Amino acid sequence: MRYREILEACWTGYRKAGMKRKGDRWVPNCVPVSEQHMEENLRDWFKEKWVRFGPDGKIRGDCARGSDSEGKPKCLPQSKAHSLGKKGRASAAAKKRREDPNPERRGAAKNVSTKVREDAVQDLVKDLKNPHSYDAIDHMMQTIAKKSGITAKELHDRFVKKHDITPDEYIKRKGNK
Fold first, then answer.
1. Model confidence over 31-61: pLDDT tens digits?
2. Rounded CA separation 53/75 (Å)
3. 14 contact partners, CB below 8 Å, separation of at least 6
């Protein structure tokens, strides 16, 4: 997501309906999403096929259909589970087990967010201000990725998508300025 898109984004439950003037700049005119539209989204959400997966990242079948010996599964809509990839699913399941470690706990399920910290790329940019060796960049990316719940490759790909260059090239360009 580019900086401009972030500036033009609206809160959850609101949608962009054109632009309006605020002081000396233009900002998105965010209006509430109609209740009917929200109901349709909720209906779609319930219609989705949900799957469970374990810490190995393998999809094990329908959600809430596992055996007692399986431990605590992580459940997501099938489309999102596939889009995460095997490593992303493994990371999400591991996070679930970290935040809810007792397999014998009774009561309501603990919902653990699958969302990845979006500021991982910003953390990397902040750490890349000074020139570093390739190994130092790799170690830095591994640390930030682990803290953010993603793989170093995913962090690298997000960095390239956002800046259109690799972290190594980013440092070289910053050093020449």
1. 887 654 555 567 777 788 889 888 888 888 8
2. 7
3. 30, 31, 32, 33
pLDDT in tens, 54-69: 888 888 888 876 676 7
Bridge-partner residues for 15, per DSSP?
A: 31
Write the DSSP assignment of 42-102 as a string of letters. Answer: HHHHHHSPEEEE-TT--EEEETT---GGG---EEEEHHHHHHHHHHHHHHHHHHHHHHS--
Q: How far apart are CA 50 and CA 59, in angstroms?
A: 10
> Is the four-CA dihedral 33, 162, 77, 151 of positive or negative sign?
negative
Residue 165 DSSP SS3: coil
- Helix or strand (DSSP H, E) at 168: helix 167-176
Mapping DSSP to helix (H, G, I), strand (E, B) and coil, where does residue 107 land?
Answer: coil
Distance (Å, whole) CA 82 – CA 15: 28
Q: Using a cut of 0.90, tell me whether the model's pTM lies above it.
A: no
Contact 36, 48 (CB under 8 A): no
